[in-house]
């Protein structure tokens, strides 16, 4: 029947939920998995044993953890994304010039995914830095809003319907009409801002990367509010990141991994 989603394979869905739970709990036993997912302990154990036999789960003492086999899949997906090849040299230059942290990000199933992180000489703690592969809500991040600016409003509303607009801080946009108005401003200016919307005391500036007419990701530079203030935040950084985007898109137009 048209218009209907294909049937989900419940066993596959359960396996993925178990893996996600192992990551959330930083390792767990069958009983903890069963309690968290409301399934039988014997069922949880069977899934864990199967995942272990396939090499996706390891066991240390009495606790199961995600195995490194997933790293192969993740690195393959990351390295084959066009943003990696065309963005890193210019992002490195931006980080060297500002001393802050730069991110290369993309959208995946309505979430903002970190593909690359380059740290400047002004190191920050992990709360600001995050990690490669991290998945976040798009509306609270400069990079996420930059990517959304390349999407239609219908697509943005689909993402909102799926994931919502949860608040990270008191500054996070949590109203869909307000977000759409913000995205329209990003479309006009070509740059997105995160003014303590994800983390208190943190600001960032981001811009979308377009390849062959399609928004494929974003570049962001961020740091503490006290260092990213006044015209440096509103004018200097947007100008710098605009030049970086120009370089990246020119590099992509000459040799695109998607062509």
> Quick one: how many beta strands?
8
CATH class of the largest domain: Alpha Beta
C-alpha geometry: globular
CATH topology descriptor of the largest domain: Beta-Lactamase
**The number of domains:** 2
The share of residues in helices is 40-55%
Largest sheet, in brief, is:
6 strands, antiparallel
Structural overview:
- The chain is of the alpha+beta class.
- The chain has 2 domains: 10-67, Orthogonal Bundle (Arc Repressor Mutant, subunit A); 75-254, Beta-Lactamase (2-Layer Sandwich), CATH 3.30.450.
- The protein has helices spanning 10-24, 30-37, 41-53, 69-79, 82-98, 126-129, 142-148, 153-163, 176-189, 230-254, and strands spanning 57-60, 63-66, 101-108, 111-119, 135-137, 192-195, 202-211, 214-224.
- Helix 2 (30-37) packs across helix 3 and helix 5 packs antiparallel against helix 10 (230-254).
- It is globular, with a radius of gyration of 20 Å.
- The model has no long low-confidence stretch (mean pLDDT 92).
Keywords:
259 residues; alpha+beta; Arc Repressor Mutant, subunit A; Beta-Lactamase; 2 domains; 8 strands; DNA binding; Tscrpt_reg_IclR_N; transcription regulation; DNA-binding
